[in-house]
Each structure stands twice: as C-alpha cells, then as structure tokens.
C-alpha cells in the first residue's frame, strides 16, 4: 500500500526551506532592532566567559566598594537589562502604532 502525500490547500503556502529568522512581512525597522538586540546580548554574554572575563577577574580596583570582577558582572547585567527594556519598549511602540488592538 503506497502512501500519497496530502496536497496543500490552495490558500496555504509551503514553508520556506532553510533558516527563517523573521516572519515574512516583518518591517525592516523591527528586523534592525532585533538584530541590534541580539548583537548586544551576544556581546554582554561573551564578556562573562573566557577569554574576556579572566582579564577582569581581579579583586582590585574596588568599584563602589565592590571587587572589580563583581562590578564587571553587575555592569553586564545592567547592560543586558537595558537592552531587553529597549527592545520591549520599541515593540510596544510598534504594536501601539498599528497593532491589532488599536482602533
């Protein structure tokens, strides 16, 4: 018994092959913001692992009373938080400008 693949309905388009980073129809501004966010996030994450982190893993100098290595981690955390907050607020502006919920 042979199995025939079920044909796609006329209204459905087949999924594109390969790596799909953005949904079709995503605006260039939204794509740019997301790519900037990913670049900042990767930069902050790479600053917390070898080979970058050992350069800043000493105790001295003290920064606001914190050892330098801890201050480095706090700085990375603050930068990461600001990046996520920026992305969230920019997505909120997009949905408020022409989203499904606006009337």
General description of the model:
- Helix 1 packs antiparallel against helix 2.
- The N and C termini lie far apart (55 Å).
- This protein has helices spanning 28-46, 68-98.
- With 103 residues, it is mostly helical.
- It contains two helices and no strands.
Topology record:
Elements: H1 28-46, H2 68-98
Helix pairs in contact: 1-2
Proportion of residues in β-strands: under 5%
Q: How many individual β-strands?
A: 0
Counting helices, strands and paired strands, the structural category is mainly alpha
H/E element sequence:
HH
**Mean pLDDT figure:** 84
What radius of gyration results from the CA coordinates?
A: 22 Å
* Amount of helix: 40-55%
Low-confidence stretches: 99-103
- The helix count comes to 2
* Inertia-based shape: elongated
**Between the first and last Cα atoms, what is the distance in angstroms?**
55 Å
| Biggest pleated sheet | none
Give me some keywords for this one.
2 helices, 0% strand, mainly alpha, 103 residues, disordered C terminus, 49% helix
Give a quick summary of the entry.
The chain has 103 residues and is an all-alpha fold. It is built from two helices and no strands.
